[in-house]
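Batch 3, record 17
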Amino acid sequence: MSTSHVLLGLLSGGARHGYELKRAHDDRLPQAKPLAFGQVYATLGRLERDGLVEQSGQDRDAGPDRTSYSLTGAGRTRLAEWLAAIESPAPYVTSTLFAKVMVSLLVAGEETTTGYLIAQREAHVARLRELTGIKTARGASAGDVVAADYAIAHLDADLRWLQTTLLRVAELNQEVNS
Amino acid sequence: MTALLQGAALHRRYGRTPALRGVDMEVAEGEIVAVTGPSGCGKSTLLHCLAGLLKVDSGGVSYRGQDLGSLSEAARSRLRRTEFGVLFQFGQLVPELTAVENVALPLLLAGSRRRQARKVAGEWLDRFGVAELADKLPGAMSGGQQQRCATARSLVTEPRVLFADEPTGALDVLTGERVLSEIVHVARERSMAVVLVTHEPQIAAYADREIALRDGVVDPSGLGLRMPA
Ligand SMILES: Nc1ncnc2c1ncn2[C@@H]1O[C@H](COP(=O)(O)OP(=O)(O)O)[C@@H](O)[C@H]1O
Ligand SMILES: [Mg+2]
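Prediction for the assembled complex:
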């Protein structure tokens, strides 16, 4: 997922200031990492350079956060293309975990790798519990629940992978270090 | 502080098959503990022993510091009726009784008046979203509806500990979530402890803590992988 596409989407309802975009982003995607203001402005700058957004107003007495941006026609097209594009079904988080396990076996050996896998699993389990708590909380909105579901399903897949990899770590070690 | 429920050095075999080979565990008041592990590792046996439904060969289970093994059968059965609730994967409702009669049954056995028992039972059915099934027989309900009734029945006496063995194993995801969330809310409201047996990480995540079993012993890594020597 790219932040620039999400910002384009958030601008589709009309012009907004950078700080409004940050707030809307963090509200709409509560499980995502909150956006830093710097990242918002840097992204807007790139989008403006590429002709996808334009400045549509500036309050008189003001710094950069008083500038509002709106979508251009090209921006609208780009947004529509992104929304219609099927993402390649590559598991993005697991690829980091996978790379780390392979490198760890090469560099540090089986015991260290097993220790890492156990600790990583504990972190995943803790997060799974936290997300489940968000869902179970009284007054959780449908948006909270659906966002948590998304993260839970992915964590669950990683967890299963961590668990089976633990069972295969000896075999994998032999292969990697032979 | 003493644990609400404690199992110490629990051993249990079926004929020559060992099911528990020295399990130590504790559950505090109001705590939700998941018991996890692969099929056949001893989860159900542990739950039955903790709930006083099955005798251990050696070791002991104590509730509020009192050894279950030292109680008379009558005292143990009273404890099960008043302090414990049990819920299995397939709710095991009494087929001749309607939903509300099934849920009222534990209250009647504990000495409640019929009218009061039906009223309270109706409230619990409502809490699990099946109030409109009150007068139906189990045979006329779906599996998910039966399980919601069974969950209501397991909670109607306001137990101090709920023992739940794969309670949502036969339910679709959304019904399972609804049942589990409601159990968690009851546990939080009333400081009820829960022993939740499951082999699913997503279900175990409803608990405060996880105890992983592997071949009849507790595996401290939580993975069912690292065996104590
Ligand atoms: N009634 C029984 N008679 C004989 N063996 C049993 C019985 N119940 C369980 N077992 C055996 O005891 C072990 C633990 O079973 P169980 O407690 O049901 O495990 P789990 O609930 O984790 O699947 C298994 O090897 C199982 O085959
Ligand atoms: Mg079982």
